[in-house]
Design brief:
The complex is a heterodimer of chains A (331) and B (365). Chain A is α/β, with parallel strands linked by helices and 331 residues long. Chain A has helices at 2-13, 39-54, 68-78, 92-98, 126-140, 155-171, 192-204, 217-228, 255-265, 297-312, 320-323, and strands at 26-29, 59-62, 84-87, 107-110, 119-124, 145-152, 176-183, 209-213, 231-236, 247-253, 272-276, 283-285. In chain A, helix 3 packs across helix 4 (92-98), helix 5 (126-140) packs antiparallel against helix 10 and helix 7 (192-204) crosses helix 8. The longest helix of chain A has 17 residues, at 155-171. Mean pLDDT of chain A is 89; it is low at 4-21. The mean pLDDT of chain B is 90. The chains are: A alpha/beta (331), B mainly alpha (365).
């Protein structure tokens, strides 16, 4: 800690102390907190995996306020942390502001974007994974009505919803997709009660498979769906085990792999763009013993075939973010 | 003598309250297996140990001065404006629209117009609950908190669908043009070989906040309008008898309150983020309530309380950054301070008061 205090004192006066003094990686969790059972937690799991395997240590912070974004980036960079990994798209602007001041440090943004030279961007093809989840939902549905519950109404979540709806309609063009967003504030990421209410509302409209892309709110969706006897689809991490036999599948977004890879590369990490799509196993659907009984051989074959076609480019899943519109779903 | 000396009232009691709050926090830190002495020194050093730390502390302080003043003015008129959050959000919209769409030659002009923009939007957002209260008797607590949610939804819609630059992932406006960037303390106080406040967000808005404190003091205690507002707050019936229009005072007090809340956005939106983001208010509107309560609704008290909360925000951030202390615990520490200095003030006040009175009586004998 004394070393850290030296850095604290030095930070005010010394311009660039970034160096090899202690090249620990650092990770900055977004406002959702690192135990959100979803996006941030996936990053935490990747970091922990790296720490246990290598015996290394890493610096971390869970952000509490918007002003802390730049602050945390600068403090970690000045303390010599490398790479500095950030979770969530909201870090885009802060990274763009900070990264040019610390050319020796590699910054990593997961879901964000920055044109600075020393930034590694992990971009996930959530629409492709959601497409596969949508196919499974349509095949499992008996009422021909499936649901989507998003967290906060932002473009990223619409990307999930749009891919999902395309997958549903690819299997059954007559199916109905009901889509709801939990809210318009960051609280929407952590409101399981409202998630549960939306689930009940969608069930009353006939939905019998419901996909939750809503962080902590999704836990309420999965819980309610299990209680009411309909199927649900988890997101980000593999959530099949939460309610075995009740969760049809989980749309995996391998944030843990991204964090693990970044930490493993350490200071040698190359900046640039890394697309985490189906081909690179960055997204996918989770199949394990908890949902084996729900997934028929026919379903699995269809999903595998579609995955192969997406990878080969035969099926092009529309990405909501590319033109801010969705051909099959209105928001 | 049946009162304690004034210095004890204004200085000793708050300090005792703070000491107890920190002692309780120390116990909690000890309970989770961290060193409380180290934690406190880290907080103090992180918030006040360098110009950098001061830069963040004063940035948060600026936010809380605005919202604290806003709540205190509504309080004086016996209204509980808990819509500060929504008024800040709308103020941010006003500031953003002005900064984005008017080409300013210089930041001074931009600041003045943005202040007006933030104030008008904030006041407009407060006007509807105020009107409902004045004319219809709809309770201001209910309406203002509901207007917070409407403000969030409106901002979300505008940022996701209208103001977001195409292809941008983050629901936020484009960055404001260079000429609207406010000078930070780093720009103002650094010399070529001595850079101070490096990277800290505190900016010229801090001085606007100080001016606002003085202005509110003169408005509330040195003007006819301020007297009317306070009279109405103490007794609406008596003030009607004295010829004060309750509708007028309700409207004016809330409009001023909303305008000051909205003006906070020159600090966070224009000064710090330099773009309008979704989570721009981030609770400052609610902290303002605690600040106004602790500051006893007086501008000078608000200034001190805002500084305390600024210190806690920045010191707490440093704790989370360098120690293995979960961020929820920082909130616990803040809660202890609010509880001791606000709600449980009398727990300390009564024994101290009695001790002083006893000592005084012994002296007489």
């Amino acid at each position: 800690m004394t070393l850290m205090q030296k850095f604290l004192g030095a930070a005010a006066t010394v311009a660039l102390t970034a160096g090899a003094a202690l090249a620990e990686p650092a990770i900055i969790f977004d406002l959702g907190g690192k135990f959100d059972k979803s996006f941030n937690e996936a990053g935490y799991n990747g970091a922990e995996k790296w720490a246990t395997e290598t015996g290394g240590k890493y610096l971390e912070i869970e952000l509490q306020s918007e002003a802390q974004r730049e602050q945390a980036l600068r403090r970690f960079a000045e303390a010599g942390a490398n790479p500095v990994i950030t979770m969530g798209f909201a870090m885009s602007t802060p990274i763009s502001n900070v990264a040019p001041d610390y050319p020796e440090t590699t910054f990593v943004t997961i879901d964000g974007w920055s044109d600075a030279e020393n930034v590694l961007k992990f971009i996930f093809a959530e629409h492709e994974g959601s497409y596969l989840a949508g196919m499974m939902a349509a095949m499992a549905s008996e009422s021909n009505t499936v649901g989507f519950i998003g967290g906060m109404d932002i473009p990223l979540i619409r990307k999930f919803a749009c891919g999902y709806a395309q997958g549903v309609l690819a299997v059954n063009a007559d199916a109905t997709v009901i889509s709801n967003m939990t809210g318009t504030t960051p609280a929407a990421w952590n409101d399981p009660v409202k998630g549960g209410e939306l689930t009940k509302a969608q069930i009353s409209q006939g939905a019998d498979v419901i996909y939750a892309a809503a962080g902590g709110t999704g836990l309420g969706v999965l819980q309610t769906a299990a209680d009411e006897g309909v199927l649900s689809i988890g997101v980000d991490s593999n959530q099949n085990h939460l309610f075995p036999g009740k969760v049809l599948t989980s749309m995996l977004k391998r944030v843990d792999v991204a964090v693990y890879e970044a930490m493993s590369a350490g200071e040698a990490l190359e900046p640039g763009l890394r697309v985490m799509d189906l081909a690179h196993e960055g997204v996918g659907v989770a199949l394990d013993e908890n949902n084996a009984a729900l997934v028929s051989a026919e379903m699995k074959a269809a999903v595998d075939a579609a995955a192969a076609k997406i990878i080969s480019g035969e099926i092009a899943v529309h990405d909501y973010m590319s033109d801010d519109s969705c051909p099959v779903l209105d928001f | 003598m049946d009162k304690m000396p004034r210095w004890a009232d204004v200085a000793l009691i708050p300090i005792l309250n703070l000491v107890i709050a920190f002692a309780l926090s120390a116990l909690v830190i000890l309970a989770i297996g961290e060193d409380p002495v180290e934690a406190v020194s880290l907080m103090v050093k992180g918030a006040l140990g360098s110009t950098y730390g001061w830069g963040y502390t004063l940035y948060y302080t600026t936010n809380f001065i605005f919202t604290g003043l806003a709540v205190s003015i509504a309080f004086q008129a016996a209204m509980f404006n808990i819509g500060g959050e929504g008024q800040v959000v709308l103020g941010g919209l006003g500031v953003a629209l002005v900064s984005l769409y008017i080409p300013f030659p210089h930041w001074t002009l931009a600041l003045i117009v943005a202040m007006a923009g933030g104030a008008i939007f904030g006041a407009a957002w407060a006007a509807i609950p105020a009107w409902l209260q004045a004319k219809r008797g709809s309770h201001i607590v209910i309406t203002t908190i509901m207007f917070n949610f409407i403000a969030f939804s409106l901002l979300n819609y505008l940022l996701v669908n209208v103001l977001r630059p195409p292809g941008e992932m983050n629901p936020a406006t484009a960055s404001f043009p260079e000429t609207t960037h406010l000078p930070t303390f780093q720009d103002m106080f650094s010399t070529a070989d001595n850079v101070v406040f490096r990277g800290a967000p505190v900016n010229v808005s801090f001085f606007i906040a100080l001016i606002a404190c003085v202005a509110v003091y003169f408005l509330m205690w040195r003007s006819r309008l301020g007297f009317e507002i306070r009279a109405f707050g103490k007794s609406p019936q008596a003030s009607v008898y004295a010829g004060i229009s309750p509708v007028k005072i309700t409207m004016i007090a809330m409009l001023i309150s909303g305008a000051i809340s909205g003006m906070m956005s020159i600090n966070n939106t224009m000064g710090q983020a330099e773009q309008l983001i979704l989570n721009s208010a981030e609770g400052a509107g609610f902290v303002g309530i605690a600040v106004a309560l602790m500051g006893r609704n007086h501008p000078f008290g608000v200034l001190l309380a805002a500084f305390l909360f600024g210190f806690l925000a920045q010191g707490g951030g440093e704790l989370a950054l360098w120690m293995n202390i979960p961020r929820e615990l920082v909130t616990v520490i803040q809660a202890f301070v609010i509880m001791l200095t606000g709600a449980m003030d009398n727990m300390v006040r009564w024994p101290v008061e009695r001790a002083f009175i006893r000592a005084a009586k012994r002296g007489e004998r």
